[in-house]
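Example 3.2
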Amino acid sequence: MFINQIRGQEPLKKTLLSSLQSSQLPHSQCFIDSSGRGGLALAVALALEILWDEESLAPHLNKGKEASFFLEHPDLHLIFPVATSASVSSKPKCSDYIKQFRSFVSEAPYGGSNDWMLSIGSENKQGNISVDEIDLLFKALHLKSFSGGAKVCVLWGVDKLNVQSGNKLLKLIEEPPEKTFFIFVAENELDLLPTIKSRCQLSSLKPLSADIIKEELLNQGCEENLAVFYAANAEGSLGKALESFQNTEQQREYETLFVQCLRAAFKASGNKSVVIDLMSWANTMGALGRTLQKEFLLYSLHFIRQALLVSYQTSSLVHFQSLTGFKIEKFAPFVHSGNAQELIELLEETCYAVDRNANGKILFSDFALRMTRILNKKEL
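Structure, written as C-alpha cells:
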C-alpha cells in the first residue's frame, strides 16, 4: 500500500510526495479523518514511502509479497487503540494485536475504530492507548535504526490519548530521536490535546466523490444499483460505503427493526395492548451489542432524513433503496415540520446515551414510547 494506491485526496498526496522528495517532510503531522476517508491508509502509505526506496522495494514486488509484509518493516512502529478480549484478559498492549492490526490495515484500510474493535472481539469496549504503550514506544525509537535510515511511528487514534499518555508523547515529539517521523491519525480534531495539536502539521482529509466511491464498490463486486445507492449515502466516506456493501444483510436487519418500531408506534396510539409489542422490540434492541445499537440508530437517522426529503418533494436529493420492499413514499407524509426536528433529536440523544453505556432495555423502551408520541403529532 503506497500513496499512489490511495483513492482521492490528490492535492494532499501531491504535497506529501513533493515534501518527501525535497526532504522537507515535517517530523510530526496529523491527518484528520472523521469517517473512513482514508486517514489510516494514507498514514501507513506515507510511512512506507519513507522506509522503502525503489531499490529495496523491487525484489519484494517481483515476488508478489502481500501488503501486510511491508508493514513488518522493523523501523515501522504501529500504535493503535486496544482493549481486553477473549485472547488478552488484562493489560492489553499493541504487541498483543500487531498481527491482527497488520491484517486489518491490509484488508480494511478505510475502516474506523469501531471496525477495529469489532475485529478483535472487543466491540462493546472503548479502545485505549496507555501510558505504558508510550513508554515502550519511547524506548523503541531511541534504539538505533535497523536499516540505518529513518524510523517512523504511525499512531492511529491520537485523539483518544488521555492527559498522562499525551504528556508522555509530547516529550517524544518535542525531542525526537534523529531521523524519526511521527504520523498521527485522529477521528475528531476537537478531542486532540492542545499540546499535541500545536506541534503537528494538521491536514484534514476531504470527502471522496460519489464517483470514486461507486467505482471502488464496483471493483469489489457490488451490483451497480446498490453501488449508486451506497455511494450517494456514504457522505464522502469510502469506509462507510464498503461497510454498507459488506454488511448488506445487517442493513436489511436494521431496516426490518426500524420498520417494526414504526408500525408498532402507529398502532400504539389509542391501543394500549400494542405497547407490549413496543416493549418486546425494546428488549430485542437492548440485547444487541453497543456497536450494533449505534449503527442501527445512525441507519434510522438516515432513514428519517430521506423520508423528510421525500415529504418535501426534493426527489433529486433522495437516495434511498429499501432492502425489505418498504415503501418510503407511504411513510414520508408522517415526517413533517411538526415532528422532524424532534425525531432527529431523539435519535441523536439515544446515540449519545449508547456511547455512554446506558442500559439498553431502558434506553430503547424510552425510545419506542417517545417515537410513538412524536410520530402521531400533527403537521404545523
